Amino acid sequence: MIYQRTIAKDVKVTGIGLHSGKKVTMKLIPAEADFGIQFVRTDIPHSKPMKANALTVGTTENATTLGSGAEAVHTVEHLLGTLYGLGINNVFIEIDGPEVPIMDGSGASFVFLLKETGLKNLNKSKKFLVILDKVRVEKDDKWAEFTPNSNLAIESTIVFPHPVIKTQHFDFEFSCENFINNIARARTFGFARDVDYLKRKGLIKGGSLDNAIVLDEFKVMNPEGLRFDNEFVRHKILDTIGDVSLLGYEIAGKITTYKSGHNIHNLLCRKLLETPSAYEIVSASALTQEVREAHKLPQFITVSH
Question: Domain residue spans in the chain?
Fold first, then answer.
């Protein structure tokens, strides 16, 4: 369980961008150890690959965007969260449009795709980012912080003045199975009253009841209802995992968030990187058995290097 992983073979998926409304095809390709997660826009001639990294994040309004300008890749958080959740450290992603397809608004479709594709061990040890000291960011009444912990844990609280959501709180202890069962299926959400405003801003052009939970003033509008009673805060944790995965390592530490969003998550990652005394990078082989067991990767269709 200490080795870096990639996917076993190429896999392709086509879908609609949530904000752009554009049809996009995305191809995931196996990569070597220490390659990380890299994107390239194949619809733009001579486009250069871009590493998924907290410092390459551009805008964070309603989604996490890598890069800026014409070559930016938008709404990466659900895909990145799923790659982290399944222990995939290295993959090259070709995409022929500006935005990762939204699928059903969760990570579930990506889980299915990657389980079918399979995983491959690489002949190099993984590295963990171990939190040594508290790091915190605040903005208005929103905040997020890292604190030391033997495993990745996320404690998230959201507050919305809506009768279906209100205040929701969830404690998540990372494992692959816990991610698949409790986080991956939680969908993004929004409010019917905001639709016109967001569309005027050029957002949610591809949004529908097929790829988001939509709420009117009193209830969930989706005919099938919710997948979890607290699906909203579970989705916040999916977003958080995707955003902090941009640190580039698996994490041994606790993340606590209150009313946070993509901007707060990125500010937290940047502050951590600016505070070298608050973390260290450790080879997985040097970690305790407890940490390695907690991060145990899935056993489906694994191909040895």
Answer: 3-125, 128-294
CATH topology for the 128-294 domain: lpxc deacetylase, domain 1 (3.30.1700)
DSSP, collapsed to helix, strand or coil, labels residue 240 as helix
Q: H or E element: which one contains 23?
A: strand 23-30
108 in Cβ contact with 184 (< 8 Å): yes
Contacts of 228 (CB under 8 A, 6+ apart): 182, 185, 186, 234
Is residue 38 within 8 Å of residue 51, measured between CB atoms? yes
What pLDDT is stored for residue 292 in this prediction?
Answer: 54
The CA dihedral of 211, 217, 221, 225, to the nearest 10 degrees, is 90
Would you state the pLDDT for residue 241?
98
> What's the CATH fold of domain 3-125?
Ribosomal Protein S5; domain 2 (3.30.230)
C-alpha 16/C-alpha 19 separation (Å) is 9
In the residue annotation, 46 being an active-site residue is answered as no
Per-residue model confidence as pLDDT tens digits over 235-254: 999 999 999 999 999 999 99
Q: Residue 199 class from Cβ within 10 Å (0-12 exposed, 13-18 middle, 19+ buried)?
A: middle
Question: Three-class SS of residue 102?
Answer: coil
**pLDDT at position 298:** 42
Catalytic residue among 74, 235, 262, 265: 262
- Extract the residue ranges of the chain whose pLDDT is less than 70: 1, 288-305
Q: Which two tokens stand for residue 141?
A: 């009444």
